[in-house]
Amino acid sequence: MKILSPRVLRALERFNAAYPWDHNAHYHRWILRQLPKRFDRAVDIGSGSGDLARLLARRAVAVTAVDADPVITVQAQELTPSSLPVTFTVADAVAEFPAGTYDVITCVATVHHLPFAEALACFRNHLAPGGTLVIVGLSRAQTPVDHLLGVLAIPANAAIGWLKNKGRSSPRPASMTAPTRTADMAFDDVVRETGTLLPGARLRRQLFWRYTLVWCQP
Questions:
Q1: Which residues have CB under 8 Å from 195's CB, separation 6+?
Q2: For the structural domain made of 25-139+183-216, what CATH number should be given?
Q3: How far apart are CA 66 and CA 93, in angstroms?
């Protein structure tokens, strides 16, 4: 479904490049609100530059941050104070998932890089009883609701970029340098597969081309 002309899209791309902001970091505070005030072990899948892992470490006894990209993992280590209990690991998030169980598992803008059903099953198997899984994912626009949210996000995206950068052109933050890819699954497909693997999970479409998933291990 074509929403905007190529000329308008190019203008928006130039604007967003001049006033960048991290759409994933926008949801970090929301993620923290889904979690207990204190917990023992957490793992952040697709940790990127480590922003969320550092936030989790202020509540956790230990945080394992996993990313497949060695370059951004080195950047994350350099940005992380030694006083924070974060261990950074370069690994495949499914095939090499860190051993043991975790009270909290987070995964932001990463699950669409993974085999979806296999990833959810892996997260479920490593989540401790009573633990919380929080995913912020990307899905392919398919329904009228998806396209409407996409249209609404366009002016909001530009406005927030302008405000966050205080009207000044800025370089991209380190958190926005990780490799990206387009989501293949539509939101309805995400809901269907999640219902099979994680009964009772709460899924919501969100602004800025994202959806959220929260599930608690019985």
A1: 201
A2: 3.40.50.150
A3: 7
